[in-house]
Specification:
Elements (H helix, E strand, L loop, with lengths): L8 H12 L2 E5 L6 H6 L5 E2 L10 E11 L5 E3 L5 E2 L12 E2 L6 H4 L2 H17 L4 E13 L19 E10 L1 E3 L1 E6 L5 E6 L6 E6 L2 E5 L2 E3 L6 E12 L3
Antiparallel strand pairs: 1-12, 2-3, 3-4, 3-7, 5-6, 7-15, 8-12, 8-15, 9-14, 10-11, 10-13
The structure holds fe (ii) ion.
Fe (ii) ion (FE2) binds next to loops.
Length: about 240
């Protein structure tokens, strides 16, 4: 996977926003295989580690190495995902082993583009680094019996340097408002509800916290869902 350079004014504004506020929102140029990429969210697996007993999350997990300078990404060996309890009080403290991304996703131009865009921002903020990207495909579902929670741990941080949230789709559900908070004062800096098919990415770094409100069903719907790609980047130290 090869990278692309940041070239336009909104890119420069986003880099400035990342530096000063710690987050930015941008439009991703959609790859030609976007539809195939998005369809893969129909083939995720139940998350059996939900400490709240919820059955509303299906997902897959894979890790990649991303070169910040070139934007090139390579799949890393499959491992369990782990957060410590001080970062995730609800589901942290244990190894969570999920099914890996399907090859049609690993090899997609859409994923390469998401990495390349992230790498370009990372390179502008912290040049010359290699990054480990811990990635989830997440689908949160709501039914008449269960409200889906995109962030069941509440307002939180991910314990990494940089997070990409790539909005993929939302069907039959409303809510899911994403918010960004300062770590020190917990002041809310930004609120946004992603709408299908907006395909927008947002990025935050370590000094922020974030949360997402629950998903409720749209009137007349029996099931609804919200799909995102999460990529959590950490600098690989030499
Ligand atoms: Fe998070």
């Amino acid at each position: 996977m090869r990278g692309t350079a940041l070239t336009n004014v909104s890119d420069a504004q986003n880099v400035a926003s990342l530096r000063t506020k710690g987050y930015a929102h941008s439009k991703l140029d959609l790859a030609s295989d976007w539809e195939l990429f998005a369809e893969s969210w129909d083939n995720l697996r139940p998350d059996t580690y939900m400490a709240d007993g919820g059955e509303y999350r299906v997902r897959r997990y894979s890790e990649f190495s991303v070169n910040g300078t070139t934007g090139a990404a390579n799949l890393l060996p499959h491992v369990a995902y782990r957060q410590e309890r001080d970062v995730n009080h609800l589901n942290g403290g244990i190894d969570r082993l999920y099914e890996p991304f399907e090859s049609r996703v690993v090899d997609s131009d859409a994923l390469a583009r998401a990495f390349a865009t992230s790498a370009a921002y990372l390179e502008a903020v912290r040049p010359g680094r290699t990054w480990k990207a811990q990635c989830f495909q997440n689908r949160i579902m709501s039914t008449p019996n269960e409200i889906g929670h995109p962030a069941p741990e509440g307002v939180h941080r991910d314990g990494v340097d940089f997070v990409l949230t790539l909005f993929v789709d939302r069907v039959g559900a409303q809510g899911g408002v994403s918010s960004v908070y300062t770590l020190r004062t917990r002041a809310c800096w930004q609120k946004r509800s992603w709408r299908s098919p907006e395909n927008t990415s947002s990025s935050t770094i370590r000094k922020l916290m974030h949360g997402v409100t629950g998903l409720s069903l749209e009137e007349g719907q029996e099931i609804g869902h919200r799909d995102v790609l999460i990529a959590m980047f950490t600098v690989v130290e030499d």
